[in-house]
Amino acid sequence: MPRSLCFLLAFSTAVSAASISGRGSALPPLGYERRLLRDALNKRSSNDSEGSCITSEAPTVSAPKTNVWAPISAEDNLAVWNLLHDPASGLNLTHPDEATLTDNYVFWIDTLHTNKSSVIPYLDGDGPVPPKYARTIIFRGGQEEPDSQEFMVGPLPVSAETTIEPLDYIYNGGSGGSVPFNARYFDGVKTSATDPLVISTMTNIADITAALFQGGVYYGSSNESTTLTATSGTPQSFDGTQAFRNIMFRFPGPATYMTPLDFFLLIDCTGTDPSKYFVKGFVTNERFFATEAELRAAFEAGEIAQEYDQTLDASWALVDYKPEMGVRELEERFAPNSIELGGKRYKLDKEQQYIEYMGWSFYMSFTRTLGIMFYDIKFKGERILYELSLQEATAQYGGNQPKAANTVYHDTYYSLGAEMGTLVEGFDCPFGSTMWNISYHEGNQTIVNQDALCIFETDMNFPISRHRAGGGSSDYGFRNLGTVKGAMLTTRAIATVGNYDYMFDYSFHLDGSLELSVRASGYLQSSFYYPDQGKWGPRIQQATQGSLHDHILTFKGDFDIVASSNSLEVSKLVSVNQTQPWFPELGEFEQMEMDVSCMEKEQQFNWAPNNQAMYCIVNKNEKNAWGEKRGYRIVPGRSDIHLSVLNSPWSMKNTEFAKSHLAVTRQHDNEPFANSVQNINLPLKPQQDFMKFFDDESVDDEDIVLWFNLGMHHFTRSEDVPVTLFTEAFSSIVFAPQNFFDRAQDGDLLNRRWIVPNEEGGLDYEDYGVELATCAVSPSEPVLSIDKVLEL
Ligand SMILES: *[C@@H]1O[C@H](CO)[C@@H](O)[C@H](O)[C@H]1NC(C)=O
Ligand SMILES: *[C@@H]1O[C@H](CO)[C@@H](O)[C@H](O)[C@H]1NC(C)=O
Ligand SMILES: *[C@@H]1O[C@H](CO)[C@@H](O)[C@H](O)[C@H]1NC(C)=O
Ligand SMILES: *[C@@H]1O[C@H](CO)[C@@H](O)[C@H](O)[C@H]1NC(C)=O
Ligand SMILES: *[C@@H]1O[C@H](CO)[C@@H](O)[C@H](O)[C@H]1NC(C)=O
Ligand SMILES: *[C@@H]1O[C@H](CO)[C@@H](O)[C@H](O)[C@H]1NC(C)=O
Ligand SMILES: *[C@@H]1O[C@H](CO)[C@@H](O)[C@H](O)[C@H]1NC(C)=O
Ligand SMILES: [Cu+2]
């Protein structure tokens, strides 16, 4: 039994190596984690091509085509920046560091998506490589009619042919790439313009805030005597004709989100002239005071005393070790890990950001707003998806106070992709994961987020298939048994946008299915605790309420099942009365059948009640060996929801993509995105109106796009302290072959066992040549010790 012996040996070596080193228990957990992070940052300096299963690099492959979706390079960004700032461009730009409200300056530069119509002839034929373009948003406060205008700049690299043109064609709201001044992103320039009003107002009532909030005063964020922080969310306008800030005050510190106070200042900040900004009022104790005089009168009458003190020290809300919580037996031992014992089984073209794995192949891209994106996803050489990308991360809150009631977030507004940060090997991703950098542009610079994307194959910890069939029996009571090992390749990135860490996993399974999951961890945007406001969430600390909210993650799946012409087939399970002559005694009786049809027109729709319908993207022109239409099924996973509130003024027309579980539209070059990045401040007059995608076009045997939502109704709880847990805050969906093949795609896998009882009463054991790996886990090289991992 050499094989099982080897396995036992490997197992015991790993255990003893970890326990001999004893470093994990000798060091305080925080110090230990820092070492790992430092290690992740320094990356591996040793010889990566060595054979260890932890250090080995993935084999390389050459992408069949140039990655035409790739992000623009640092050189292109700099050249675009210089071109924009060249006086000859006529844009009259000021450097952002010196800009005021009434100057023109660059907000950001990013990569413009490449039109599918120009990609397909290149990808599938001899067409030319499509031209590359940058997109840039320019704030034009220096204009007669101030606005924000987006431009496309290309072709790249910058040459005499390169032009700067308004980027209007992807927006359907009526004003193209122009966003009114009042609705544009509230950057530092715009926020500081409101400082004088906020500071003078809060200074005038410093005696009141100090008395109510344990000495809390606000004289501006840079004043050394200030003891409060000010925060306002979005939207900050309804339609661009007004601008406002509903400011909430909190105690500062790393967990400031968890120490909110019962005090709000509402200001109007419409236009480019700060002298015209004014105070709309104050809110505390669930009462509104239009003027400082009214507030002061109530204060002096003792009417607005605070029932609870907020905690000044928020150490209870840090994600650090809490020894006072006690000890869990054996927990000082190093936790289990997933290791690629047989070496890496996926191939990479790092230059082209192209990956091959077990029949899968795909390209990756990235934008600062949408994060990581996938293109030309094929399985066994046939295209399944042209594009798979996040479109928006929405969160909407509720509460009887200005901040929670007002808050809707679109995280693309905050450049979600740029917030995809460094991952900790061994904790955020398995040891030995391939780590790629993510970079984005800031001004004329390119910022590198090191090791922000990890790629790894893991054991699924359950077989992809197995069966114990009749036939044969042995001394072991055995019957024929077949079992196939489960594994999957995952690409993962975590975006920390303000208070939340969203973890995005795209997992490619051996059977041709593709799973997407999103998990959320991080601080609740909490509210001050009011005993009568339980309907907006529970009390989670002495003066803190966890505010009720929804998270909706909107994705685009541009399916191309073998080719671009696809249909959305709905198979409803219906219960029907029928008779069958061989059951005369039953008369009419109910049974189920499938009612199959294809959707005709573009539409938004929801999962059927009781999940009693199957939705498949099929290619009517492609049949499998049995004459069935080849397709992929959209399999609902966990928590596939839409927004709870459909008619809120704060999300009325700019968040329509989050208001149904699913939607299907025709693919168009001018409808690449569900949302626009500055739409959040335009709920009543959107720059991009998702509803306009539904203009009665046919989706039957056409190039169609499926839009789908993952998410979570966040019923906040004490266990969201210190942070929301990834275990529970979790949503997923699966795309699985549905008659795409003639049989399950596991027969060609060698990592399996076929065990049959033999004549002698023993077992014949077939391993198809795939022996248990010894890899680094051998007596001569106990690589699994923690020390060794730290030194990689
Ligand atoms: C790295 O390892 C490979 C394979 O063992 C070896 O050929 C090469 O010389 C090593 N390079 C260095 C710099 O040690
Ligand atoms: C250029 O912008 C500045 C403000 O930054 C403005 O004062 C000036 O009038 C503008 N020049 C032209 C020609 O528009
Ligand atoms: C992409 O397609 C749109 C719509 O047809 C067109 O207006 C635009 O110029 C195209 N972009 C490029 C870079 O060719
Ligand atoms: C900070 O604010 C206080 C109170 O308004 C003021 O007296 C002081 O001058 C400010 N400090 C600075 C550096 O502006
Ligand atoms: C990531 O970026 C760092 C710093 O720019 C660089 O040293 C490293 O080689 C990069 N890693 C990869 C995998 O490209
Ligand atoms: C970027 O701009 C800054 C000034 O804004 C300048 O000092 C720096 O040299 C520029 N970098 C490059 C690469 O041009
Ligand atoms: C089948 O017939 C029974 C008896 O008439 C009726 O109660 C039931 O609702 C029918 N079922 C369906 C699905 O029509
Ligand atoms: Cu949440």
Number of E-state strands: 39
Helix content: 10-25%
What are the low-pLDDT stretches, counting only 5+ consecutive residues below 50?
1-51, 776-792
Percent in strands: 25-35%
Average pLDDT taken over every residue: 90
Bound molecules: 2-acetamido-2-deoxy-beta-D-glucopyranose, copper (II) ion
Task: Please describe what this structure looks like.
Helices cover 13% and strands 35% of the residues. The chain is mainly beta. The strands form six sheets. It has a 20-stranded antiparallel sheet that branches. Strand 38 and strand 39 form a beta hairpin. The longest helix is centred in the first third of the chain and has 20 residues, at 2-21. The protein is globular, with a radius of gyration of 29 Å. It starts with a helix and ends with a helix. It binds 2-acetamido-2-deoxy-beta-D-glucopyranose (7 copies) and copper (II) ion. Residues 337-744 form the Copper amine oxidase catalytic domain. Residues 258-320 form the DUF1965 domain. Belongs to the copper/topaquinone oxidase family.
Short description:
The protein is mostly beta strands and 792 residues long. The strands form six sheets. The chain has a 20-stranded antiparallel β-sheet that branches.
